Amino acid sequence: MNEPTRPTPVPDQDSAPFWEGCREHRLRIQKCASCGTLRFPARRHCAACGSDESTWTDASGKGNVYSWIVVNHPVPREVFAAEVPYVVALVNLEEGVRMPTNIVGIPPDQVKADMPVEVLFAEVDGMVLPKFRPRAE
Known about the structure:
Layout: H1 16-23, E1 28-32, E2 38-39, E3 54-58, E4 62-71, H2 77-80, E5 86-93, E6 98-103, E7 116-124, E8 127-134
Antiparallel strand pairs: 1-2, 1-3, 4-5, 4-7, 5-6, 7-8
């Protein structure tokens, strides 16, 4: 029987520059080349103006916790049991986009709404993932 494996992101044409930035420890956000609207996750067309032209810009890596959950019952258990409890959160970046991530470096019961956080990069199963930790205000 096959052992369960950790799900990992699969970069596609739209998201590849984001994942390349993560490998370089740079948090990158897609930007509409026509109207300047920032968007995350990356997508082919701008929701604001419909343009299919985009560039990428480096984000500050700073934000605030918008919402979060604490995972106590991992699925699949065989893969994540050693990591519980852990926090899955939505972070509002200073640039105005919201990013799903993990909050690390703090006990899960100490995560608070609007808590200031900053990005750090962690290698997980060959991928470099952006995670966030508390930052001093």
